[in-house]
Design brief:
Elements lengths: L6 H9 L7 H12 L9 H5 L6 E3 L4 E6 L1 H4 L14 H24 L3 E6 L6 H11 L22 H5 L3
């Protein structure tokens, strides 16, 4: 099946796909902050660790990757579809992504980091994600945790608050 739009238009569309400060990342950061975790997103550890993790919790020696189901091929997810045009290209690209993710995880574990992956589709149930994070990242008992996470109470920071630009 031929692509319906021109090569130039496709290039322009793909250039608009962001890789940092995506909505799922901002949602996870807001959730982490709300339940009491402190982390970095632009710190030196983020840039120097293998795979450049989305979120680093240095005090807990843990990193979090927020993966899009389409790009990182979440097994069994309905969002992990394969485009019908140029299928061989996409299959090779997806396989490279999977292999890179696997190598990144192994390198981080070898360095002593705990690696947590949160899939985009999992963010539909924030209570479950919060429970998973709390179980994976043991906390001090001095913190009171909210009984329930209310979606409308989550506030995700804007990209401007991280870059200093308006």
């Amino acid at each position: 099946m031929a692509d319906r739009i021109s090569k130039e238009k496709r290039s322009w569309v793909m250039s608009r796909v962001t890789s940092k400060h995506t909505k799922p990342e901002r949602l996870v950061r807001s959730l982490l902050h709300r339940i009491g975790y402190r982390f970095t997103v632009n710190g030196p550890k983020n840039k120097n660790l293998p795979g450049r993790p989305d979120i680093v919790l240095p005090s807990r020696q843990a990193v979090i990757f927020v993966h899009g189901c389409f790009w990182h091929r979440h097994t069994g997810c309905k969002s992990a579809t394969t485009p019908k045009s140029n299928t061989s290209y996409w299959l090779k690209k997806f396989e490279r992504n999977i292999q890179r993710d696997r190598q990144t995880r192994q390198a981080l574990v070898k360095l002593g980091w705990q690696v947590i992956t949160i899939w985009e589709c999992e963010l539909k149930d924030l209570d479950a994600v919060a429970a998973h994070l709390i179980a994976a990242l043991p906390r001090s008992p001095q913190f009171d945790l909210p009984e329930e996470i209310e979606d409308d109470k989550l506030v995700a920071e804007t990209q401007a608050s991280y870059t200093g630009k308006k």
